[in-house]
Structures are given as C-alpha cells and as structure tokens.
Known about the structure:
- By secondary structure, the protein is α/β, with parallel strands linked by helices.
- Helices cover about 30% and strands about 20% of the residues.
- The protein starts with a strand and ends with a strand.
Amino acid sequence: MNTGKVDVLLGLQWGDEGKGKVVDVLTPHYDVVARFQGGPNAGHTLEFEGQKYVLRSIPSGIFQGGKVNIIGNGVVLAPDLFMNEAKELAKSGHDLRQRLHISKKAHLIMPTHRLLDKASELAKGKDKVGTTGKGIGPTYTDKVSRNGLRVGDILENFEEKYAAHKARHMAMLKAMNFDDFEGFEETERVWLEGVEYMKQFQFVDSEHEIGKLLKDGKSILCEGAQGTLLDIDFGSYPFVTSSNTICAGACIGLGIGPNKIGEVFGIMKAYCTRVGSGPFPTELFDETGKTIRDLGHEYGAVTGRERRCGWIDLVALRYSIMVNGVTQLIMMKSDVLDTFETIKACVAYKRNSETIKDFPYSIDNGIEPVYVEMPGWKTDMTKFTSEEQFPEAFNNYVKFLEEQLETPITIISIGPDRDQTIVRTK
C-alpha cells in the first residue's frame, strides 16, 4: 500500500522566524498544507512577484495552484478576521472556496473572548503576558474547560448556542468589574457576518480527511504558528501562547499518528527576536539591537509592535531541536547581519558562578549569556543565487552553528522574496 508522508515545519525561537516564506518555498513538493495550532495572532508574511501578503489563519500553501489547504482542529478561528483575510485574497485573484477545508472541531474565537482577554490583562497589571488581545487565550481556556463553541456548531442551532456562550462570558466580565464595551455591537455584527461567510467553505472531519489522503499516498506539510519557546508546556512559561507549538502539536492538532511524521524542518533566524513580555537572555538594549531591528524590519506583521532583538541563542536552540526532533534546519534573515564587524552566538548561560548548558526551568533570574565571537562577513548577500558565492566568514558561521546544534542547515534565506532562498547541496 502506498502510504503518504507528513512533514512538519515549525519555528524554533519565540515566533516570527519567517515560517510563511519557507512554507511557500516548500509547498511545491507537497499535495496538502495544514495548519495545526494557534490563531490569528500568527502573521505569516509572504512576498513574491512584487506583492506582499500577511496570512493569519489561512495556511501558507494557498498560493500554490490547486493544493488542498486544511485548517486543523487545533486552530482557533475568528470568523470576522477569517472573512477579511479570505476576501483580501479573493481580491488578489486567490479564491479559496474550493481549496480550503476547515475542521469542524476547530474552536471559534467569539467577540466576548476578546473582552475577556482585555479584562484578564488589565487584572494582571505589571505582570501582564503581552498578548495580542485577539481572544486566543480565553478561547483555549474555554476549550480545555469544555465550554467551547466549535466550527461544527455553526451547522445546527447556532444562534441558541452562541447566545448561551455569550451570556456566560458577560457574567464573567461582570464579575471582573469590566465595563469597556465600546464598539462591541459593531464587532459582534461583523463577527456574525463572518460566520455566514464561512458557510461557503467546506467544513470537514479533518482527521478522517487527512487519514484518507495519506492512504492515497498524498504528502502533507504541517505548518506551525508562533515558535517552540512559546509552547504552553515547553516555552518560557507563563510568557507563552495557549497551544502546543512543538512537533507533537501536529499530531494533536490534526489527528495524525506520531509514526506518520517524517522530516521535521526547524526554522530559526540568524539572530533572535521576541515580541511582548517575557525573559530573553540574549536581548540587546544597545545600538546593535536597534540596528538589527531596523535592518531586519523587526515589527510584528499583525500588530506592528517593535520586536526585541538579540544575538542567536544556541542553548535555547539545542533545546528546541531536541523537543521537536528536528531533522533539518532552515536559517532565515542571514542578510540582516551582512554589515556587522563581529557576530556573537550564545553557547551557554551563567547564573552566579554556575555555567548552564541545558535550557533551564526558569530563564528569568540572573541569567547571563556566555558568547563566542566570530568575524562578520561584511558582504551584501541579497543578490546571491548559490552557496558557492557565500563568503568564507559566513560559511564559518554556518559550520559553527551546525557543529553546535548537531543538525544540518539545508536552506538559507538571504532576503524576503521567494527567490532569495539558497538550498544547500554540500
């Protein structure tokens, strides 16, 4: 029997590694692209043919002709934001109605979830997590407490179900003394319009669909959102997202047996960034950090927030590679470091006089990075078309990373465009 294969693509840092572009580069080799977790807090940016697209909930494989794209059960979906995104894509000539399938088991982000998100952050004061305010955390909370509203509910007695969930949320907001309902009626109106709009798409039992596709010998690429260090279990808790962003999340978020997973592509930047609150050992507060931010255009695709920037953290990366079972590394934004005299890489942490090589339970108390310094390559690599053109200093950086991480770097990105991608053959 010809069984298909499932490969997984995910971020190894704190998100924003450039997953959208890589999915777009890899999708020609797959029949199906599926999202397995997260919500519209993900902003996967793709640039090609002079156009720039930001995908929030829709898998990045939608630009590749007739491929099937699946939004899995592990995703949380906001009908209004989904509608806006799909309409924008339709305007640019990408009509998704035949090609995009949505799991009936995916949970819906309600307008009141956004209010609960806001109320919760306000209540935390200075300890706030720094969420995107899109209602994702409260939606996952409802899911885990068995109070969720799902895509499949749209098909039967939806108004009744929606009213009951809304009433429950309103009682919770009242108990939290929350009274900022400005604009809520309009938000709700557009949200309900989004629910109607979603009915044009195919709602599926995605686990059965994927099972049949694999039986038919089809290949599937699972697309992660956020990054490993934001995983609810393995990230820098509590400054994490509300879902499992690691490779195992693909099994849970799509209904795939672990023995079906083949390649695990881990994406990292040549440096490190983080959005929102939470510990970040290699963060730079100096001119170097600002230069990386400006050269790398490190501003959130969805929120516009400035990203915090720092040198690459190999302690965290080794950990991410381990928990994901990464088989191939993909390094993004190498070109951002083109002008630096010196490049640094964190190879260990120091706390008091102790050297730490393994990513610890907590990284927020007195952790200092231990750096190795290497000469920069001082070369504009953005026009390069093959690895033969890479300067020696850059090759040395790549070799050093491969030795430290014990995993091959097989793809290197040297710019935002689809064409600025070097697949290594050496």
